[in-house]
Fold this sequence. Notes:
Layout: H1 3-17, H2 21-25, H3 32-42, E1 59-62, E2 68-72, H4 87-97, H5 109-122, H6 132-144, H7 148-155, H8 159-175, H9 178-188, E3 190-192, E4 195-196, H10 198-206, H11 215-224, H12 237-256, H13 262-269, H14 290-302, H15 310-319, E5 323-326, H16 330-343, E6 351-357, E7 364-369, E8 398-399, H17 405-414, E9 422-425, E10 428-430, E11 451-453, E12 460-463, H18 464-469, H19 473-483, H20 485-494, E13 517-518, H21 520-531, E14 535-537, E15 542-546, E16 552-554, E17 559-561, H22 565-580, E18 595-600, E19 607-612, E20 617-623, E21 634-638, E22 641-645, H23 652-663, H24 677-680, H25 712-718
Amino acid sequence: MDRGSGILRLAGAAAAAGVLTAALALPAVGGAGAMFVNTAEELNLKAMTLKEPPLAEKTTILDAKGDAIGQFYEEYRESVELDEISEVMKTAIIAIEDYRFYEHGAIDIEGTLRALAKNLTSGGIAQGGSSITQQYVKQVLLNSAVTDEEKAKALEASYARKLNELRYAMGVEEKYTKDQILEKYLNIAYFGASANGVEAAAKRFFGVSAKDLDLAQAATLAGAVQDPNRTDPNLGRQHRQRLLERRNIVLNRMHELGKITDAELEEAKAKKLGYKGTPLPGGCGASRYPYYCMYVRAEILSNPTFGKTKKERTQLLNRGGLTIKTTLDPKMQKAAERAIKKWVHPSDHPVAAEALVEPGTGEIKAMAASRTYGRSKKRNEMSYNVVADAAHGGGVGFQAGSTFKTFTLLTGLKEGMKVNDGFSVGAGYRAPGYSTFKNCKGENIADPSHTVTNDEGSGGFKTLQTGTWGSVNTFFMKLQEEVGLCDTIKTAKSLGIKRSDGLPLQEFSTFTLGINEMDPVTVANAYAAIGARGKYCEPMVVTEIVDRYGKAKKYEPKCKQVMDPEVADAAAHILEGVFTKGTMRGVGGIGRPAAGKTGTTDAQATAWFAGFTPDLAGAVSIGDPRGSQKYKLNNVTIGGRYYGSVFGASIPGPIWRDTMLAALKGTKATKFHPLDSSRFGGCGSSCAPVQRDPRDSGDRGEPRELRDIDSDDGIRADLGLD
């Protein structure tokens, strides 16, 4: 068939189809070049500017030292420059997709005519005939589509779409060099197996970088772009077989074009497919520090600092190609992980969790738990962030017990009490009347019929110091009565205290006994504010974000002074005694100034320790996530050790101690500011000789803490359930 008759037949087919008739009739008079010019004129094929939104790029999270600890992506892609791609890869993709790429303009006339003829005679879009530039345009339009309707339009089999692609391709060719277009195409193309771009594909398919691809590997990837879903090697044997066939087609084409020798062809075709299926690490499940990673992700998605809407923040995180530097200190993280592992096993039903926070900045330095993150019940994994609140991927938390007594202590000091001021209390406390305790709405919520008790009695005169060291329930109920429930709640809130589940704090008379469910991050950060002399800082994990273009934005701590520094100093002075004269004396200190408070809930449902130095604060919790009230910490084996009952000083205290010893090793010890004796020393109007409980002296073996919370019946009464 001669050229003229072929074009006339093409024109006839076009006429029958009712499209492009005038444009295609003209070539019978002139050559191929004239045909294209006339066609372009008839169809108004003028260059159009293509909007090229940034490609979806993976976001990488770094620790404070700059090492990667996690990544997020909507599409896994790592854009690379053309010189970072092997020459054989470039040769392979051009050979199979557009062998005249460097010779023709925006449109390969020869290929387009061949495709038009095939499509017109088949009655549809049977052959693309697209140049690499046109394919790039198509990928940009598809990647830019947001709705399903837009995506369908970008892929529809119509001449209108094809003509628009041609117009955009002309604009792209005017804007970029051929090398630039090839680079863009190789970075945007989808290769299958969730790999977008040649770098991700090289890693996913073969575990190498794009610059290290050999002939067989390059031919495989070049063959995959035609129909990546049909040849996706991750989908099974048939798909891999089709991919192998496509690879050999590419190799044959490269040989046909003289790009490889006979020997190279045979050697490459003799190789197996070699697909490795290298995991593309993404999400927090693949992170070395999953709980910290979850916190960072939730913080980005929920904090308006990182975008006006959640949709905007989600796109930023999953598509933005960001590098996010965080506050995580690998040394401190390792210290927390080792300490927890020493005391609690991953296979144990109870789970221990710990957070470390820097006083004065709110920087979260570590987040660790005894169980690995995941959804395998067989491996006893945790499916949520047990270290954080619900807003950061956590759950309902655990009741914080006597760690809340510190907020009542602070309130007493704020209201003018001295360290040796106190009250005579009995073994039980009962509110004098219904108006004894008022919540912050001014409502009477006391229950005179309910008695709060201590463990095995322990009444007598107690001061702010001795009452705190012994964690005496009746003393703190009386202290809360004196200073006011609402004032105590306000003190706690000023230090960032809020329920882990996001619900309002329960404002009942036993607030000081820690009836509210908490998470280690929130408690650690509250105690960090005391260590920072009353300066509260919002919990912080992100210090810098660098966008895909290298533009960096730094984030500073958000802090405010929430109490008189001397009040915080006085509280630290008292809480130091917990290690030497109180519930932690059997555990011991850490060889530097430290302060803290144990916490154990009723009948050992959960146990806590929260403590701080001027340099670092931490909180440790332990409880059974199956239900702490049902599965209490009595007669249990944890970490290979049997416990008749678990108290704050039994497991959480030692975990905190071991963590701090390692985390602060090599850090110069900082002293607390001394107590202002003129303001807080001595006695005020409520001073009497101290009556120490004889059981408070001497070593009683395994450290125990006095019972911190009233009975279940009492809690139910306080909550209005009985």
